[in-house]
Amino acid sequence: MSTMILRPKSPLRRHVTQPGAAPTVAVPSWLRKAVGAAQTVEDAALATGAAIAMLDTVVRRDEKWAGAWRQRLALAAAAATARQMGRVEDEAALRDSFLLTRPGDDVGPGGLLLLGWRRLAARPAGELLTKKNLAAVLEEFGFFARDGAAVSDLADALRRLATTEGAVGMLTGAYAAVEGHGLPRAMGPWLADALLAQRLGWSHAIPLLGGEAALALGTARPRRPATGALAAGAGTEADRAKSLLAAEAHAALRAIDLSAGLERRADRLLAVAPKLRAKGANTVVDRLLNDDALGASRGDKRTGMSDRGLRRLFDRLVELGAVRELSGRATFRIYGL
After folding, report:
1. Could you write out the DSSP letters of every residue in 193-209?
2. Of all helices (H) and strands (E), which one includes residue 223?
3. What residues pair up with 325 in beta bridges, in sequence order?
4. Over its length of 337 residues, how does the chain's per-residue pLDDT go in tens digits?
5. What is the spatial distance between Cα 222 and Cα 103, in angstroms, rounded to a whole number?
6. Is 25:223 a contact under the CB 8 Å cutoff?
7. Residue 204 forms beta bridges with which residues?
8. What domains can you pick out in the chain, each with its CATH number?
9. 124: phi > 0 → left, psi -120 to 50 → alpha, else beta; which?
10. Among 152, 169, 212, 300, which residue's beta carbon has the most beta carbons within 10 A?
11. How far is CA 26 from CA 31, 50, 71, 106, 286, in A?
């Protein structure tokens, strides 16, 4: 079944955070209800199309805080897929594994999983499904190909999906490609998000389905051949398609809600930035807008700030209400929007 992603003709409901600011997309109540009430594949596809259209509006605004938004979603995706894979790391532990280790240090299996999702959020969308990048992310997800044939076959399969399938077929096909190549199931959301970004022409992918792992990865594996099942709207293939579409719709709304909160905090950070007198403060502000969080225990080589100077800057930003301390610790503290 090929279903186009629909864009609503009526204007999106928006509110403005402050005079002169770009409008913030607000999810209307009817869409939240439609996402939760979908009973058929067709209902789910329509609701998902509307949700993705609203998300597309946020993406194409290309705000200064978009990097932090994508990386915050990547962290949530890593934590959710880690749980689905039977691991115990939560968001805080995964964040620590990344920020409290030096480049090149062993970050552990959970940390590697986070690196894989961060890769999705940071690399240009057009590079995500190349053989080289797929090989790297497969290793981060715990799969080590003995030769390049498996990676090459996967890249070819994804290329066919991107050029021949509609929105629903592309989504379910990403999971089928994972199963057909014997890859970790957690790769399904990653590949589907990359395919969606390329289909919509986004400069960077938005980590969506990983954060809904219970829905996106918990779908039943088909018990019989898929031929005709999805088109008929019945059987396990239809159930799987509906579950995946529901997961994507919920993920899109969650991403939009997160963008609204981050936008308010980013506006506050940008408003207080001119008051900062510390050397390198502008670089720190820029990094806060482009990443999930920053540590304050090892200084900042990009700005020449010592660890003491960086901690004083972050204390000032917290005092001004521009950033939050995220670790809850007295030492090795971590800050972000």
Report:
1. HHHHHHHHT-SB----G
2. none
3. 335
4. 444 343 433 334 444 344 445 557 788 899 999 988 888 889 999 999 999 999 999 999 999 999 999 999 999 999 998 998 889 999 999 999 999 988 778 888 899 999 999 999 999 999 999 999 999 999 999 887 666 778 888 999 999 998 888 888 899 999 899 888 888 888 999 999 999 999 999 999 999 999 886 555 554 343 333 333 333 333 477 888 888 999 999 999 999 999 999 999 999 999 999 988 878 889 999 999 999 999 886 655 666 677 888 889 999 999 999 999 999 888 889 999 9
5. 42
6. no
7. 124
8. 24-266 (no CATH), 276-336 (1.10.10)
9. beta
10. 212
11. 11, 13, 21, 41, 26
- Residue 307: both structure tokens together: 């660890």
Helices of type H across the chain: 29-37, 41-61, 66-84, 91-99, 108-122, 131-140, 149-164, 167-180, 187-200, 213-216, 229-232, 235-272, 281-290, 307-319
